[in-house]
Design brief:
Helix content: 10-25%
Distance between the termini: 31 Å
Pfam family, one: TAXi_C
Keywords: Aspartyl protease, Disulfide bond, Hydrolase, Membrane, Protease, Signal, Transmembrane, Transmembrane helix
Strand content: 25-35%
Number of strands: 30
Structural class: alpha+beta
Number of helices: 9
Family: Belongs to the peptidase A1 family.
GO molecular function, one term: aspartic-type endopeptidase activity
Organism: Urochloa decumbens
Low-confidence stretches: 1-42, 119-144
Radius of gyration: 24 Å
Largest sheet: 6 strands, mixed, barrel
């Protein structure tokens, strides 16, 4: 029975079942069970039948926010959406238009290489006067932001003004564009610029303070600037890996996560000069591990823990949550130790110990994973140590040998892409990742494995540190629990 026929048989059978006798109902249930397998359930042998990206392109968007963590009184959750999808706020949505796959992969490659290069140490450049008033900014403080894909909407100020910001575990200092920024010093955004003068809870950070010195010690300080009243204000500055820059006044404000849940005296950057490829979004929310991040600033309340669930496609929503579930609510998670990063406190590192394809463990020497893997919300495809990637590619291509393999495309990194033209369903092997401590996750099929019909992994040319990209993380609640020194994964969370 084909998957298409199975769909039809299930519909007919369920209509009959309402009038059926018990024996007939049992038969119907057996048909229903078979259909679930044929339409995407797991098969014995580690393969799953799934619709192709072409056949599922017309699916309706499901943008309602439903999250099991939303009802937890000890956690604060907000909806999360893909910035190029129909569930994103209209102010940042591109109306369905998004960069080409080749362009997204180019941006992704730049971000991945920048993160990995940070192990070689920070460098400092001086921006020209036309860029940022001659401010010297460490280039390694932020990964490229033009590859970031997921946004949340938060309230800044009193009264709260909604601002839609990118989330980034590869950055620490949060910022939004602020008045009196003009068209020559800031990029266009659809939402009104945040106006500090309209908020009763806004305060700038004076230059000669401990907070300003801490900012400088963390590498984000950019000296002092004079206000219109003659006061000396603390100035921040960031240059990202793609050479985008943001400079402005280091400030504090009330940050509202949702009605009734607000963070007072939240430290952030009030951006007055942004240069680069920024587009539509209002700012950035830093979720790294350094003291300047939202996670660190709320550690006293939420224990240095946060989680997110990245939705399987552009047409659905996920969530971002501060806090960890109680010990009696972690049964659905698998945990692996969280390690410190030699690149600094920003990044979250875990140890990958094995990979399986179609239920079979690949023969990869443990030494291939010795440098660890950074989990990153902003990197798209997973960059594996070269030895591990070679084994994964060989096994995946063998399991997918029934489908035509496209020739290599010099404009993109992905080298295992398929031609599914004319097919409504394909059979995809499962891919599982095993981490230190034995935690194993089965990646979502197909959304956690394929990116536009390509295997969403690349080799990084050596057996050094790798990066787990956001495609692999789709549908999991990924829990970063710094307070307990662990990272958790809960499948099927969004």
């Amino acid at each position: 029975m084909s998957p298409l026929l199975c769909t039809y048989s299930y519909s007919a059978a369920t209509s009959i079942a309402a009038m059926a006798s018990a024996p007939l109902l049992l038969c119907v249930l057996l048909i229903f069970t078979y259909c679930l397998v044929a339409l995407g359930g797991r098969h014995e042998g580690g393969f799953v039948v799934v619709p192709t990206s072409t056949s599922s392109a017309t699916e309706q968007a499901a943008c309602s926010f439903v999250s099991q963590v939303a009802s937890d009184p000890n956690r604060a959750s907000v909806p999360l959406a893909h910035r190029h999808g129909p569930c994103a706020p209209a102010s940042v949505s591109s109306g369905g238009v998004k960069p080409s796959l080749a362009e997204r992969l180019r941006r992704d490659r730049a971000r991945r290489h920048h993160i990995l290069s940070m192990a070689t140490g920070r460098t400092t450049v001086t921006l020209s006067d036309s860029d940022a008033a001659g401010v010297s900014i460490p280039t390694s403080l932020g990964a490229a932001v033009d590859s970031l894909q997921y946004v949340v909407t938060l309230g800044f100020g009193t009264p709260a003004v909604e601002q839609t910001v990118l989330i980034d575990t590869g950055s620490d200092l949060s910022w939004v564009q602020c008045k009196p920024c003009n068209s020559t010093s800031c990029y266009p955004q659809k939402d009104p610029l945040f106006d500090p003068t309209a908020s009763s809870s806004y305060a700038h950070v004076p230059c000669d303070t401990g907070a300003c010195r801490d900012l400088a010690n963390g590498g984000y300080g950019a000296g002092c600037t004079n206000s219109t009243t003659g006061k000396s204000l603390c100035q921040y500055g960031i240059q990202y890996g793609n050479l985008d820059t943001t400079v402005g006044v280091y400030s504090t404000e009330t940050l509202t996560l949702k009605p009734g849940v607000a963070i007072k005296n939240f430290s952030f950057g009030c951006g007055l000069s942004q240069q680069g490829k920024f587009d539509r979004f209002d700012g950035l929310l830093g979720l790294g591990g350094a003291p300047e991040s939202l996670v660190s600033q709320t550690a006293a309340t939420y224990g240095g823990a946060f989680s997110y669930c990245l939705p399987p496609g552009n047409g659905t929503t996920g969530f971002l949550s501060l806090g960890a579930p109680g010990s009696n609510n972690t049964a659905a998670f698998v945990f692996t130790p969280l390690h410190s990063s030699p690149e600094g406190p920003t990044f979250y590192v875990v140890t990958l110990t094995g990979i399986s394809v179609a239920g079979k463990v690949l023969d990869i020497p443990p030494a291939a994973f010795r440098q660890g893997m950074i989990i990153d919300s902003g990197t798209v495809v997973t960059g594996l140590p070269e030895t591990a990637y070679a084994a994964l590619r060989k096994a995946f291509r063998s399991a997918m040998s029934a489908y035509p393999l496209l020739p290599p495309n010099e404009d993109q990194d992905l080298d295992t892409c398929y031609n599914f033209t004319g097919l409504s369903n394909v059979t995809v092997p499962t891919v599982s990742l095993t981490f230190d401590g034995g935690a194993t996750i089965d990646l979502d099929v197909p959304h956690g494995i394929l990116l536009e019909d390509c295997l969403a992994f690349v080799g990084d040319g050596s057996d050094d540190t790798g990066i787990i990209g956001n495609v692999n993380q789709r549908t999991f609640e990924v829990l970063y629990d710094s307070g307990r020194g662990r990272v958790g994964f809960r499948p099927g969370a969004c």
